What does this fold into?
Amino acid sequence: MSTTTPTSTPSQATPPAPAGAERPPSAFRLSFAGILRSEWIKLRTVRSTSWSYAIVVVISLGMAAIMSAALDLQDGGPMPAAVQAAFVVQASTFGVFFGQLVVGVLGVLVVTGEYSTGMIRSTLTAVPRRLPALWAKAAVLFTATFVVGAIATLGSFLVAGPMLAGKGIHASLVDGAVIVPLLAGALYLALVAVFALGVGAILRNSAGGIAATLGMLLLLPIVLSMIPATWANDLVPYLISNAGTGMMASGGQAVMEPWQALLVVLGWLAVSLAGAALLLKRRDA
Amino acid sequence: MIQAQSLTRHYGSKTAVGAVDFTVQPGKVTGFLGPNGAGKSTTMRMIVGLSRPSAGSVTVNGKHYRDHAAPLREVGVLLDAKAVHTGRSAYNHLLAMAATHGIPARRVREVIELTGLESVARKRVGGFSLGMGQRLGIAAALLGDPATLILDEPINGLDPEGVQWVRRLVRHFAAEGRTVLLSSHLMSEMALTADHLIVLGRGRVIADAPVADIIGSATRSTVRVRSPYSGRLATLLARPDVTVTPTGPDVLEIVGITAADIGEQAAGAGIALHELTPLSASLEEAYMTLTQDEVEYRSMGSPDSDAPELQEAAR
It folds into this structure.
């Protein structure tokens, strides 16, 4: 064959390694560590990831600044320390409410993007037992989103803290009533992302997955509170977004303790991931 | 080696693959041939576990694909549809695939070079032409240096250079004792590339034989004869097992007798011949004959037929 342009013509060389009946044992082997690495490469090499995470951080910092600036204290009396801490925490985690929508969309896209492009066939050919790919996706998304969430809430504290200090409201990061809710906000974002990943894996369609996730995060609380029945009212705290708010509560007036709220969020996540695992194992790819 | 036993796949009431048995041997290129909807892609998808068989099983080197410790080293597969995220670069796609098996980045660069993708490796796959997409698919299939190569329509969208390269690649793989299963809708391509053919029609194996045998058996060879005395010649050759078809003024196409015999007999009777040409059947003709038989068989509605519409009618 006459080689034309070297760039557009496949090389004449053939694969170097010899093969046949007796092939040398290979160092290549499918492993969970390898699958984790693969999913990490996949997550960081599409644009939607960096965009989403940047938006989460920017929104969080912006909301903290707006909240802190808008706070106007009429009564000049000295506040209890716990109330001061609650103010700062609230300003620092206000962005989590918006951030959950962004990471929810990202979580859906991490898996539906593979279905819409056909990438899922490559993924499942490399990991034919399938479930390890789902667990690896969830683990990588969880870790990345937690780190970004922590940057967002801790960064927001650094924005809100000095602004509120100027108004006589002080809080210290080492205070358990401050650091725990801030990290709980990051944890909630990570859990929402994985919850959305499960929803995406169940529906396998970007539009449907995003609609379902946002519907559960945003619409369900509104719909339930509009139903004039006690059972509907009783259910409201158990919705994922309300439980998420409960996780970050630093005051005592909430319906449940933060750890109970965490259990509720974990319940949502378990249902979503279990459904995803079951269907991933069963369905054709 | 790929072994399918009673491999079956239903989609609702339709049978995509109906209890097929076949073995793809190492050391040669096996062609998978059949009209659209014959079940080629479904069968290939079942081999690598993307589709689940309704019944039966298929193994690669004695194990189910998913039970191998290093699936990508066992089988390299290129499926007909694109299987790459459009927002990722070719290099990152291959790197992510390689990472699952601990395949080093060096091997990724190797397959990029091998498939001629160097200039576009860092570009996002969404902008790739069909041919570039095919090369990337082949690069992914080669990543694990697999013992078995499964390529569904690999030359789709490739330029002539690329087609030749794929042909050489699969020949080389087979020569090394590896197993190659190749599907193509181009019969001429199969004639050039494959040693052995498995012909599928309506989800069943209708032929499983060396390429030469299929060409030889499916069509009896025809001889074209041109003579000003074609009428006399036709009478002379008339026998129950010989078919004489006039195809033009003074031209006959004769089946059931060799060119040499026709020449001898014509000479004996003093009939001048202006042309005596043995027409060997092409693979394409052989294939048409095979699938035509399949269609006729179907329309006769044999009781053991598993065509879904007939089953529906029977209920």
